Amino acid sequence: MSGRYRARIDGRDIEPADGWQVRILDLPHGLISLGGDAGSILAAVEGSGEEWWVTLRGRRLRVELRTWRERVLAEANVAAQGAAGPLEVRATLPGLIVAVQAEPGSDVVEGAPLVTIEAMKMQNEVRAPRAGRVLEVMVAAGATVAAGAILLRLE
């Protein structure tokens, strides 16, 4: 598969330099070989879903797996609200609320699922853009929302 790839590792965006190729070879026992123009290295991989860890040259790194769209929307939401103070978590697209995982007063960690929205027959989880306490939930399962609607507020 060709295209541009970017990884977010331990909170830092990494993108291969122009002209580089990255190849990943799946090996037994949770090992992968990362190869490119500069050579190759072995790494141990563990995890599932969106929670992955890679041990590389003795360092254990958390790797986020997000689509480009998910990453851009999450970053835009945090940037628009600022890093401090209450944060309004908004719907990224119009749809039907199929589940609300967050409750007022509950503490959430960054990346925790808050609300599930169904749009175009696909379910999309809205995740916490940062850790915090849920101040207020504005929606309930069965409601329809417009893009940009406030779903909840985080402290």
* Biggest sheet statistics: 7 strands, antiparallel
Helix content: under 10%
What's the architecture of the largest domain, going by CATH?
Beta Barrel
Any idea what the CATH superfamily of the largest domain is called?
RNA polymerase II/Efflux pump adaptor protein, barrel-sandwich hybrid domain
Query: Mean pLDDT, nearest integer?
Result: 76
Number of helices: 1
User: Ranges with pLDDT <50 over ≥5 residues?
Assistant: none
Description:
The chain has two domains: 7-64, no CATH class; 84-154, Beta Barrel (OB fold (Dihydrolipoamide Acetyltransferase, E2P)), CATH 2.40.50. The strands form three sheets. The chain has a seven-stranded antiparallel beta sheet with strand order 2-1-7-6-5-4-3, with no helix packed on it. 9% of the residues lie in helices and 50% in strands. It has one helix spanning 68-81, and strands at 7-9, 12-14, 22-26, 31-36, 39-48, 51-56, 59-64, 87-90, 95-100, 107-108, 113-119, 122-127, 132-137, 144-145, 150-154.
Question: Which labels suit this protein?
Answer:
single chain; 155 residues; mainly beta; OB fold (Dihydrolipoamide Acetyltransferase, E2P); 2 domains; 4-stranded antiparallel sheet; 1 helix; 9% helix; elongated
